[in-house]
Design goal:
The complex is a heterodimer of chains A (189) and B (359). With 189 residues, chain A is α+β, with helices and mostly antiparallel strands. Helix content of chain A is 21%, strand content 26%. The chains are: A alpha+beta (189), B mainly alpha (359). The interface between A and B is medium-sized, with 29 and 34 residues.
């Protein structure tokens, strides 16, 4: 006994073209196909995201001991530029952080605030100068020439228990946010 | 000899260089038919070639032009002279023909039939063989300009982008990265793509002409020649250590002192004009610059619509005209900012480093 068209429509088995695939079956196959494709693509994306977090990172630790404060001569110390990406500056006065006439150390990031190149310290001209777009910074880190919109960033510097200078790159201080005045952005000697 | 070298060095300083390039472009647009005559083009090419050969007697200049990276730029100068000169020459010939009432040359040529094989493929094959031979000889004769192994803690001085990005790198000297690195390159690409939609001049389809579309060709060539090619040449030959300007015959001294103390517009206005301290609130502090930028982008379109671009405003309609004029104003912002930097040492018109927003 043949089912009527109305009952076929009601159950979704209506198949006007007379082929093998019914309307409901077609949609089911479509969903299954796209679902599998989406799952595979999603797994691929997840795999790629996982790839962005390597198991091992060959980077120097973000905090390190830089020796004793009295070992630093006045001026810019370049010993930690290649290994840790910082300049340690000893100064007799740091008015930009509100410490006029106060001797001490501060730690500057070696990353230019314009586009992230590594500037050079020109000791004869007493300035940091970026080779990429010509940004210039004073010894304090203040930007004064070229396109860099803000001063070099400073890092946290404190005295460790054994009396050495401890530099912590995980905490940075930005001048334009008035953070250089923070107590641990400067190590008084 | 020293006198000539000093003169060339002086003319290569930013402001004379810009005046020469912009003036040369103006002269090209004004005297197009004279300047694109083959004998003028050949004379120009010969003059530049003599200049390079004579200049190469100087060790500093020889060092710059013989660097593997820079050789393509030397070639590019002649290549642009040739291709652009040839294209504009055809446009001039067509313009002169049409003034006499003749159809453009392409209309006569389009009746002729040329076979793909052998006419086209044969010529292509010869070019392929010749270019392959040239590149092989070049790669054997000139060492690859390799440098020391890359290091995350040291940048070469000067650190130059590939030659085709030197125009971008030059833009980055004057603008914040989000503008010069993202917005402007995006506008260049998008702007080139919208040309067919905002250009409603139906002339010049399928044939060379300048007279029938001077604005479109002029604007394109200004962007291409003055704001791209001239900046690539500047970045290649005139930028040295610490990204300072150096004349072609100047020793690249990494300790060259150039006093470049740049100031923001807000500092000029509050400190120098009003002799007061800058307001703490960022928006209030930068209000003059923000107003200036808003005025530039809101008053200028209206002003242009009733003066220089009146014809375009009437023909194109509001939407097309607005897009056109915005693109033009953004394009003009680059040379304006460059000249302001060189003349009054202006760093940023709007400087809000707190929000990474600098213009």
């Amino acid at each position: 006994m043949a089912t009527t068209e109305a009952s076929q429509r009601a159950t979704g088995a209506y198949n006007p073209a007379g082929g093998d695939v019914s309307r409901r079956g077609f949609i089911g196959t479509l969903l299954l196909g796209w679902g599998l494709f989406g799952a595979a693509a999603g797994a691929g994306v997840l795999g790629m995201v996982r790839f962005l977090f390597p198991n091992v990172l060959f980077e120097p630790p973000s905090s390190f001991k830089a020796g004793f404060a009295q070992d630093f001569a006045e001026g810019v110390d370049e010993r930690f530029k290649d290994t840790n990406g910082v300049w340690i500056v000893r100064t007799v006065s740091d008015p930009l952080s509100g410490r006029s006439g106060e001797a001490g150390l501060f730690v500057l990031s070696t990353t230019c605030t314009h586009l992230g190149c590594i500037p050079n310290w020109l000791s004869a001209d007493l300035k940091f100068k970026c080779p990429c777009h010509g940004s210039g910074f004073r010894m304090s880190g203040r930007n004064f020439e070229g396109p860099a919109p803000r001063p070099l960033e400073r890092f946290r510097v404190v005295r460790a228990e054994d009396g050495q200078v401890l530099v912590d790159k995980s905490q940075k201080y930005q001048w334009e946010k008035n953070q250089w005045e923070a107590p641990e952005a400067f190590l008084s000697i | 000899m020293e006198g000539i070298k000093n003169l060339v060095n002086a003319l290569s300083a930013p402001i004379p260089y810009t005046i020469i390039m912009a003036g040369g472009f103006g002269l090209l647009m004004w005297k197009l038919r004279t300047l694109t005559q083959p004998r003028v083009l050949w004379a120009l090419a010969a003059l530049i070639a003599v200049g390079f050969v004579a200049g190469a007697q100087d060790p500093d200049f020889l060092k710059i032009i013989s660097k593997g990276d820079n050789m393509p730029i030397v070639i590019m100068i002649f290549a642009i002279l040739g291709t652009l000169g040839w294209g504009l020459r055809q446009a001039s010939v067509n313009d002169m023909r049409m003034e006499k009432g003749l159809p453009p040359r392409e209309a006569e040529e389009s009746n002729k039939k040329v076979l793909v094989w052998p006419d086209l493929v044969y010529a292509e094959f010869i070019c392929t063989v010749l270019l392959s031979a040239i590149f092989i000889a070049w790669s054997i004769a000139v060492e690859a300009p390799l440098e020391e192994p890359a290091s995350g803690t040291r940048a070469p001085n000067p650190a130059k982008a590939p030659w085709y990005f030197l125009g971008l790198q030059e833009m980055l000297v004057y603008f914040d990265p989000w503008l010069a690195g993202v917005v402007f390159p995006g506008l260049i690409v998008v702007g080139l793509m919208v040309i067919p939609y905002i250009d409603i001049n139906p002339r010049g389809n399928g044939y060379y002409t300048f007279k029938e579309r001077p604005f479109a060709i002029g604007m394109f060539l200004f962007g291409f020649l003055v704001l791209w090619v001239a900046l690539v040449i500047l970045g290649t030959f005139l930028r040295g250590p610490n990204w300072n300007f150096f004349g072609p015959f100047e020793y690249w001294d990494p300790h060259k002192i150039e006093p470049l103390v740049n100031v923001n517009l807000s500092e000029i206005i509050w400190v120098q004009w009003f002799n007061t301290r800058m307001p703490d609130q960022a928006l209030l502090r930068e209000a003059p610059g923000i107003l200036l930028i808003l005025g530039y982008f809101m008053i200028m379109p209206a002003l242009l619509a009733v003066t220089v671009l009146k014809k375009f405003f009437n023909e194109m309609g509001f939407a097309r005209y607005s897009i056109l004029v915005m693109l033009l104003l953004c394009m003009a912002a680059l040379p304006i900012k460059m000249v302001l930097r060189w003349t009054i040492n202006l760093k940023y018109v709007v400087a809000i480093p707190e929000w990474f927003f600098n213009i």
